[in-house]
Amino acid sequence: MANTVTKDISYDELKALVGKSPSLVLIDVRGKDEYRDGHIAGSVNIPLDTVEAALSMSPEEFKAKYGVTKPQTDATELVFHCKMGRRGDVATKKAHEMGYINARNYPGAYKEWSEKEGK
Known about the structure:
Blueprint: E1 7-8, H1 11-17, E2 25-28, H2 32-36, E3 44-45, H3 51-56, H4 59-66, E4 78-81, H5 86-97, E5 104-105, H6 109-117
Parallel strand pairs: 1-5, 2-3, 2-4, 4-5
Organism: Periophthalmus magnuspinnatus
Domain Rhodanese: 20-118
Pfam family, one: Rhodanese
């Protein structure tokens, strides 16, 4: 049984990676309409109800659908987020169950990001 304790990432930790780390995979698990209304630059929209299916895809299918390379299960910079933190937490736990041992949740979520970024 995988450890079910969700690892979190802070705003400052995430800010240091966004736009700077080529290995960051930032997954926004909000709905498509929420994502369209504003999102963190470089994030990939994979709504919560499709996360398990997305992470089960072959690397080729994942790249074709989302336009980014599918993260490896040991990816160190795999981060999930939503608007308030809850859906990101659910997605992170699901990723852990699927073997993505280093997946982290950004609990401040888009709400905190947009406030701090002034967007």
